[in-house]
Amino acid sequence: MSDQYLYVYGVVERDEIDLEMEGVEGATEVYPVDYGPFSAVVSDVETLEPEETDENSRAHDEVIRAVMEGGEGRTFVPMRFGMVFKNGRTLKSVLREARPAFSRALHDLDGTVELGVKLVAPEETSIDREAVAEDVSERLSAASVGEVDNGLFSDRLVFNASYLVERESREAFDEAVEGIEDDYGEEVTVQYTGPYAPYNFVDIEIGAQR
Predict the structure, then answer these.
(1) What is residue 207's predicted lDDT score, i.e. its pLDDT?
(2) C-beta of residue 20 within 8 angstroms of C-beta of residue 29
(3) Separation between Cα atoms, residue 144 and residue 140, nearest integer Å
(4) What are phi and psi of 19, to 5 degrees?
(5) Where are the domains of the chain?
(6) What is the rounded CA–CA span in Å between residue 170 and residue 35?
(7) In terms of Cα–Cα distance, which of 122, 24, 130 is closest to 82?
(8) How many angstroms separate the CA atoms of 35 and 48, rounded?
């Protein structure tokens, strides 16, 4: 019989979670491990070091999205890919030790999602990059509660940022992006992605206890 370990996707406020969907390493069930006010979202795996393949990465993201969108929408504190625990006892030990950090994160992120916006220019353009980036940042900041600059890692990038947006303000943020597309769409390509779990707005460092 193969060893069974717990792959952890992240933490939500304590809730009933039962998803029949494919998880990391071909897992067929996603379920909660409860501790105090938290539910860690997990599935069973047979390795302590799952490979970060495209398939596994996609499964990781799809599970998180499904949990976030379940019920009336859950606040999700995500784990980075590859967090595996030997058993429920070691996982609960980490939840106990990091309880203040998880409580703070769930409070700070309550009712929010992460959305991404990039503006990509053609190779030859006369657009005023600085002015456009400043205008876009002002518009999107007004419709969000947090912003992270993700850097211009390509010469064609004019703007690249992630935003923390309250679910109830999603329509206003969508409208802000539409306005940007209306004003700049002939000069740049606007890439609008999400919703994601708020990876860029979580700062919890833990190690898998094995």
Answers:
(1) 57
(2) yes
(3) 6
(4) -115, 125
(5) 5-109, 112-199
(6) 31
(7) 24
(8) 22
pLDDT tens string 115-144: 999 999 998 888 999 999 999 999 999 999
pLDDT digits 0-9 by tens, 65-103: 999 988 778 899 999 899 999 999 999 999 999 999 999
| Residue 205 confidence (pLDDT) | 67
* Sequence letter at residue 44: D
The architecture (CATH level 2) of 112-199 comes to 2-Layer Sandwich (3.30)
Written as six digits, the tokens of 78 are 């995500």
184-195 mean pLDDT? 94
CA distance 188 to 168: 28
Q: Where are the beta strands (DSSP E) in the chain?
A: 5-13, 31-35, 38-45, 77-78, 84-85, 112-120, 146-149, 157-166, 189-196
Residue that the structure tokens 């707005």 belong to: 201
pLDDT tens profile 173-182: 999 999 999 9
**135-143: which pairs have CB atoms within 8 A and are 24 or more residues apart?**
136/180, 136/184, 137/161, 139/176, 139/179, 139/180, 140/173, 140/176, 140/177, 140/180, 142/176, 143/169, 143/172, 143/173, 143/175, 143/176
Structure tokens given for 7: 């792959």
Question: Chain-wide mean pLDDT for the chain?
Answer: 91
